[in-house]
Amino acid sequence: ELLRPKRSEKEKKAALTILARVTEVSETKLQDPARATKALKQLVALNPNDDAAWAHLDTLARAAEDWSAVCDLLVRRVEVAEAEKAKLNALRELADIQRDKLNDLDAAAETLEVFLQLSPKDTDALSTLCGVYQRSEKWELLAGTLAQLADGLDDPSGKAGVLRQQAEIQLGELNLADE
Predict the structure, then answer these.
(1) Is the confidence at residue 2, as pLDDT, over 60?
(2) Which stretch of 26-35, 53-62, 81-90 has the lowest confidence by average pLDDT?
(3) Global pTM value
(4) What is the 3-state secondary structure (H, E, C) of the chain?
(5) pLDDT tens figures, 5-42
(6) CB atoms within 10 A of CB 130
């Protein structure tokens, strides 16, 4: 801050206009999405409330299959979302990308746990978390999450199936038959 004085509103507006133009030219004329992404990042740093620029960054990151960047954008969306539904949607999508695109099961589990703090009875999220725990062979966590899932199910046959799966985990993977 000492070396770089704060921009006046006029300078900021001019910089935003230039960055928007650099983004457009980089993308359409130069066919250079990396340069467009760099300009957009500078633009949102100057104007973090520019939803269109954030959406454009998201589009470019997805097109480039830069899933880490998409995750960063989703985390930002969770942080700024005021509506709980918007937070939940971003968290669900973040967990899906972490699980399916990045194969980061620990991060996906952590994201789903945050989701469930906001919506503890969401059976879809509980079921997804069970799948993550199963793939990562976290049997104790899986057994506990299956119990939570069973509590949230109204369908007796669905509940029975989940409880049967929980029992199989406890007997097979956790060796709790002797206890």
Answers:
(1) no
(2) 26-35
(3) 0.80
(4) CCCCCCCCHHHHHHHHHHHHHHHHHHHHCCCCHHHHHHHHHHHHHHCCCCHHHHHHHHHHHHHCCCHHHHHHHHHHHHHHCCCHHHHHHHHHHHHHHHHHCCCCHHHHHHHHHHHHHHCCCCHHHHHHHHHHHHHCCCHHHHHHHHHHHHHHCCCHHHHHHHHHHHHHHHHHHCCCCCC
(5) 677 888 888 888 888 888 888 888 888 888 998 998 88
(6) 23
Question: Both tokens of residue 62?
Answer: 């997805």
